[in-house]
Amino acid sequence: MKRYDGAVAVVTGASSGIGRRVAVDLTDRGATVVGLARRGDLLAELQPTIKAATPASRTQTCDVSDERAYRQVLAEIAEEHGGIDILINNAAIEQLTPASDPERMMEGARRLFATNFFGLVAGTLAVLPGMIERRSGIVVNVSSDAARAPEPGHSAYSASKAAVSAFTEAIAHEVAASSVHVHVLYPGWVPTAMGMSGFGEGDTLPPKPVRRTEEQVSQLLLNRMGGPRIEINAAWLPLLAPIGRTVLPRAYQREMRRRFAAIG
Ligand SMILES: NC(=O)c1ccc[n+]([C@@H]2O[C@H](COP(=O)([O-])OP(=O)(O)OC[C@H]3O[C@@H](n4cnc5c(N)ncnc54)[C@H](OP(=O)(O)O)[C@@H]3O)[C@@H](O)[C@H]2O)c1
Question: What separation in Å is there between the alpha carbon of 228 and the centre of ligand 1?
């Protein structure tokens, strides 16, 4: 099991789901973690758990869509600990943005990009100079299979995640010579609050090969990050989506349209 003893890590979206699990698992592997999110009550519940594992760990409220505030928080953490070794840009939101409702679509797209993309860009750019100077560091930007197989009704979310993937891959090449590792994580489908949103009682959940638990995604990430691969994929089946779109376009399109009909 890979250890992170002495490393200083920031995890955004630490109040729930995948981010919470990654924060806890990082402290179990020896890292000092600062967990960020907006909901202070959930962060207050998390704090004793991460502190018990590594006493300097803590949580702090921070809205990553407020780029200036997020950069400021990262600067203060770097000052406090002498640098940030690991940044997990995990915070994100999701909402339906059907094209049939242009006003909702534009408002939703701005909101989604502010958190899912521009917040993540601001965080990445804030920590990279210190990492490049020290010639060491890890940034993980959490994307989604929606980036590879954009889902009808979720155009803005899918676009924000495609932007995350493209940005992250390009930056990973730029900093590779400085021994800084920049990864894009595809978690598969995880039954978190976000994963379950849109599923009603009795609805068919995504197929087993794409289902993962928070723990599985977190453990895979902590074992793989810092390694040579830019992409970290929790499930392999979604990797076939771009191939299916090209090789079997009619079947692929039929399936996507069935999904759209299902969400109404
Ligand atoms: N679950 C899935 O199936 C799935 C699949 C593919 C990708 N993902 C990605 O995995 C990541 C984690 O999602 P999850 O499934 O764990 O969902 P989740 O349980 O809803 O967690 C999302 C986290 O993001 C935080 N967050 C949202 N907006 C924020 C903001 N403006 N500032 C700071 N924190 C913010 C939330 O905390 P607060 O509300 O307290 O701020 C929460 O802790 C996301 O990037 C998501 O897109 C999930």
Answer: 26
Tokens of 8: 């200083």
The answer to which of 52-56, 70-74, 132-136, 195-199 has the lowest mean pLDDT is 195-199
Dihedral sign for Cα 166, 171, 173, 174, please: positive
Between the CA of residue 43 and those of 60, 61, 127, 250, what are the distances in Å? Answer: 7, 8, 23, 46
Nearest residue (CA) to ligand 1, atom 7: 144
- Whether the CB of 3 sits within 6 Å of ligand 1: no
Q: What topology is assigned to 8-237 in CATH?
A: Rossmann fold (3.40.50)
Q: Which is catalytic among the residues 161, 165, 186, 218?
A: 161
Q: Is 157 a catalytic residue?
A: yes
Instruction: With beta carbons less than 8 A apart as the criterion, state whether 240 and 252 touch.
Output: no
256-260 long-range CB contacts below 8 Å, 24 or more apart?
256/149, 256/151, 256/152, 257/152, 259/151, 259/152, 260/151, 260/152, 260/153
In the residue annotation, 2 being an active-site residue is answered as no
Lowest mean pLDDT among 56-65, 128-137, 241-250: 241-250
pLDDT tops 70 at residue 264: no
Pocket test for ligand 1, best of 12, 18, 183, 231 (most atoms within 8 A of CB): 18
pLDDT exceeds cutoff 70 at 182:
yes
pTM of the model: 0.97
Q: Are 44 and 117 in contact (CB under 8 A)?
A: no
